[in-house]
Amino acid sequence: MAARNRIIEYQRLYQNSTKPLWTRHPRSAMYLYPFYGLFAVSMVVPLVYTGRAILGIKDPKK
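^ that's the sequence the OP posted. Answer follows.
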């Protein structure tokens, strides 16, 4: 059984939407929100440890 061709549906979806291009697809939230979360964490953690290094704060030894 051949897969259904959805080009026309997607063309209408993308051309009629006023959202930014990367958020137009219905499943875009599934990809974007985890990316935003991981990106935020990967930007904040080095900044926190840079501030700690500047202030001379070290992690306690176990």
